[in-house]
């Protein structure tokens, strides 16, 4: 004798067969505070990396290109407004040279020159303005002139500062300069060509690099120098990298660009 409901028994067997034919439902993963925090940190890390990529690389490329274009346009406009060239002086070797025209010191944030350094590339050009404050000159313009130092071509020290990273980084390649490289400043009066001599690294407190004779207290000054200063190492302000150069020649605007602008560089 079979006890119980045979239909119920059959139904139970059918239900077991159907259950055996499909996988068991998966339980949902538990959402925890640690898991949510981890995902947020990963997202924040990706955003930071994207920002650094933009700020330290892509944005610098765009800003540098814009600064090059603006400086080139300014330099070209000075060519079209050239004054009559002064009479040259015949040097001992028979060559004609020109006495440099010493411009009046520029006021803070006033753009007065365009820097060209062939070692930095054929397209390189950077505006030069008075003052070395970040918000006034270095960040928006490019290179800044230490207001207490001499004017270009004047006996003494024509000292400039610029960023090595960010904001167009006009002195990014300062460590790549080689002895004899041309450093040329163009103003509305003409071109001042300096020749690079040496690099050194100093502390931020070493302000004597801005002396009329860099790192010297001598009172008598007869030669003209250029000093470029930037932070070192890269992405740090722990030290300063200093590039020194000596004045070579002045070329009036009416005479035309000097050969130093297009000289061939050896690798």
From TrEMBL:
The keyword Phosphoprotein does not apply. It comes from the Bacteria. It holds the Pfam family Sortase. The keyword Transcription does not apply. Residues 1-24 are annotated as: Disordered. Signal peptide: none annotated. The chain crosses the membrane at residues 31-57. Keywords: Hydrolase, Membrane, Transmembrane, Transmembrane helix. Residues 14-24 have a biased composition (Basic residues). This is Class E sortase. It comes from Paramicrobacterium chengjingii.
